[in-house]
Design goal:
Helix content is about 45%, strand content about 25%. It is an alpha+beta fold and about 700 residues long. The chain folds into five domains: about 60 residues, no CATH class; about 150 residues, no CATH class; about 100 residues, Elongation Factor Tu (Ef-tu), domain 3 (Beta Barrel), CATH 2.40.30; about 150 residues, Threonyl-trna Synthetase, Chain A, domain 2 (Threonyl-tRNA Synthetase, Chain A, domain 2); about 120 residues, Roll (Diaminopimelate Epimerase, Chain A, domain 1), CATH 3.10.310.40. The strands form eight sheets. A six-stranded antiparallel barrel has the order 8-11-15-14-13-17. Strand 14 and strand 15 form a beta hairpin. The longest helix is centred in the first third of the chain and has 40 residues. It is globular, with a radius of gyration of 34 Å. The two termini are about 45 Å apart. About 0% of the residues have low confidence.
Length: about 700
């Protein structure tokens, strides 16, 4: 860059040979052709460059090593570019299978393959499409890839189907992609569905505009038209710019950006005015009712007064049977949603009327709103009412909340004090806890956390609460979150000295009342953020019962006892492995008989013997071995073999001559079979789902070799 750390550098290039060159006598490192490929750049960071251009020595010098891993793969595999390596070939094969476009549009194939892989990793890290920051980049990448699908005649959502392909290709180094692939695919599909309408409308209009511009021999779209495409039809400006560039047309981006700034300013002013009006209206409503006194820590039934009735954001004097609205009481036993804990439910009634409380929320200055549906009679402002919390539901929520505290304390005990809460959801006998940690928990760590929680439950520890100052709570070791939000006095919850937290939620009186906690999942939701989901109490018991029942069914199928299921499966696995080995040996014997036959039919082309053949249901490993065996026996040879299974054909090619690269041969053979393939000059492989095309493609091997030699 123009400023910042810098220094001299050493570039490492590889000479890939004359076949990648431009035939110019001046061809050397730095030439625009593909012969000399830079794979590594070492920057010796020594100075800091200021805006004025002055170089000052860095206090700590270092070497910045930028190695292009994919370029190294290209060199090692002996292919012409990154997109013909094993990292991208599976994506190419998948795209060629789903797209009716088989020739041309190489740029579209590359962009979609690259972008889909990036999307899979980004979403796997919890970076979701949005309007700002990293999420905006994800959204742009997704939309660009989807737009290029049109060039391959893919007009319906399709990207999501390729997520498993990426996961399978990268599973050895990134096994977590396979675990999250279903969720990643769902997110991509939803975004494709929502963008499809915008793209169809906007691109259609843009195509009409470009045709008109060409007729008039105008090279730049008007700023008003470009802005209208964005404002009215939702077509992103960068996408409009890219489409125009492909048609050798331009856009005055500076002027369009100016229109966009004015539009955003106007929209924001309108939004702020509207929000101000709404807040004033709400403020008027809530300023006319008193704050609610929460008494739900000590009481679940309470006689109280109905001091406010709200219907559709309007204060009213009464509400009737069948209607829904909000109740404000002078005091309440209902806990409002907060701190991750869901709001209470229950009922509010008089002698003549009954209302079901669907949810409880705190709105402003401790005004608690009870969302109600009137089941019987009518309620009037000023009524004396009885408020009753659903006791069973509250108890289940308390189990989950106390269990969440034990979970956090156990995580800090096992993983270290660096664990901090990042979010939570406390429901009826179910909890979700997000926390800071740099890597997935190992099986042993999860087991230790689970054991520690349930040990503290069995110890039946007392759960003590007290109101103290924040500083006093922290001096006693209580964990506090978002300190700036706390009042002068806070509620501290202590579970037997093992867990201490500042918390306004509701809890049990002893840890033994939790019953049991069962961790059911541990996943990553963002960089450095992990999530644990767990079941509590009866739900945990039911979950384990279901698993036990499933184990019983598996044992029954295997005709063994529950405790012997694993040894039985291991025994079956060993037997299957032996059978697979025997099958491979049988396949080798079958192939062995045909190898000599194929060698006898070899065609001599320019001192190289060319062999092609096919089998039914031969494993890829055996097929590769057969190809190599034929090649080794013939010394100078090109061998192309295929194995045809019920749903797919697998093809391999080997070559002893760089003049007839195996990767070029397999690419052309697979193209004839409506599939795709790639690899190195000496070995390549491919596949197709069009089984009826394989025999015809193999019959063209001789012609393909002759063409390559020419």
């Amino acid at each position: 860059g123009d400023t910042g750390p810098c220094g001299p550098c050493s570039e490492i290039h590889i000479d890939r040979g004359e076949e990648f060159g431009c035939d110019s006598p001046d061809c050397a490192v730095g030439c625009d052709c593909d012969r000399y490929l830079e794979i590594w750049n070492l920057v010796f960071m020594q100075f800091n460059r200021t805006p004025s251009g002055t170089l000052s020595p860095l206090p700590s010098k270092n070497v910045d090593t930028g190695m292009g891993l994919e370029r190294v793969s290209t060199v090692l595999e002996g292919v012409s570019d990154d997109y013909k390596t094993g990292l991208f070939i599976p994506l190419y094969q998948w795209l060629r299978e789903i797209s009716p476009v088989k020739k041309g549009e190489e740029k579209a194939f590359r962009i979609i393959s690259d972008h889909l892989r990036a999307l899979t990793f980004l979403l796997g890290e919890g970076i979701l499409p949005s309007n700002t920051g990293r999420g905006y980049v994800v959204r742009r990448v997704l939309r660009r890839a989807f737009r290029y699908g049109r060039k391959l005649a893919l007009r319906e959502p399709f990207l999501y189907q390729g997520v498993p392909v990426v996961a399978r290709t990268m599973k050895e180094n990134y096994p977590e992609l396979s675990k999250n692939s279903e969720e990643i695919a769902k997110i991509i599909r939803n975004k494709e569905e929502s963008f499809k309408g915008t793209l169809v409308r906007g691109i259609g209009i843009l195509e009409d505009i470009t045709e008109e511009l060409k007729k008039k021999k105008v090279s730049v779209i008007s700023s008003q038209e470009a802005f209208k495409l964005y404002d009215t039809y939702g077509l992103p400006l960068d996408l409009t710019e890219e489409v125009l560039k492909e048609e050798n047309l331009g856009i005055d981006r500076e002027e369009v950006d100016s229109l966009l700034v004015k539009h955003k300013k106007k929209a924001r002013e309108e939004f702020l005015q509207k929000r101000k009006t709404v807040e004033v209206e709400r403020g008027v409503i809530y300023d006319t009712v008193p704050s609610t006194k929460f008494k739900g820590y000590t009481s679940l039934n309470l006689e109280t007064s109905l001091v406010g009735i709200i219907k559709k954001e309007i204060l009213v004097d009464e509400i009737q049977e069948g209607e829904e609205g909000g109740f404000v009481l002078t005091s309440t036993p209902f806990y409002p949603e907060g701190g991750g804990q869901v709001g209470d439910r229950g009922e509010i009634f008089t002698r003549e009327a009954q209302a079901e409380v669907l949810d409880t929320q705190e709105i402003k200055d401790k005004v608690i709103i009870h969302q109600v549906k009137i089941k019987k009679g009518r309620f009037k402002k000023g009524d004396e009412v009885i408020a009753c919390v659903d006791k069973e539901r509250r108890k289940k929520i308390c189990r989950s909340h106390s269990a969440t505290h034990l979970l956090q304390a156990s995580l800090r005990e096992v993983l270290g004090k660096g664990v901090r809460q990042s979010g939570s959801l406390v429901e009826e006998e179910k909890l979700r806890f997000d926390f800071t940690h740099s890597s997935p928990l190992t099986k042993n760590e999860l087991k230790r956390v689970s054991s520690l929680i349930n040990e503290k439950i069995r110890q039946d520890l007392p759960v003590l609460t007290e109101e103290v100052s924040l500083s006093e709570a922290q001096e006693k070791g209580a964990i506090a979150l978002f300190e700036e939000r706390y009042k002068e006095k806070v509620r501290s919850v202590d579970i037997g000295g093992f867990s201490r937290e500042v918390c306004g939620g509701t809890h049990l009186t002893r840890s033994g009342e939790i019953g049991i906690v069962k961790i059911i999942s541990e996943t990553g939701i963002a960089a450095g953020i992990r999530r644990i989901e767990a079941l509590v109490g009866e739900k945990a018991f039911l979950w384990m019962d279901e698993k036990n029942e499933l184990l019983g069914k598996v044992a029954s199928k295997l005709k063994t006892s529950d405790e012997n299921v694993l040894p039985k499966i291991e025994e079956i696995h060993r037997r299957l492995t032996k059978m697979e080995e025997k099958l491979k040996e049988s396949q080798k014997e079958i192939i062995e008989g045909k190898i000599e036959e194929l060698i006898g039919k070899a065609i001599l082309i320019d001192k190289v013997k060319v062999v092609s053949g096919k089998w039914e249901d031969i494993s890829p490993e055996v097929l590769r071995g057969a190809a190599e065996k034929i090649r080794d026996k013939l010394k100078d040879a090109v061998v192309v073999l295929a194995s045809i299974s019920p749903n797919k054909a697998f093809l391999v090619a080997t070559s002893t001559s760089k003049e007839i690269p195996a990767n070029k041969v397999i690419e052309k053979v697979c193209l004839l079979a409506k599939g795709s393939g790639g690899g190195r000059w000496d070995f390549a492989q491919g596949g197709t789902s069009h089984l009826d095309k394989v025999e015809e493609a193999l019959s063209q091997v001789r012609r393909i070799v002759e063409e390559i030699l020419k």
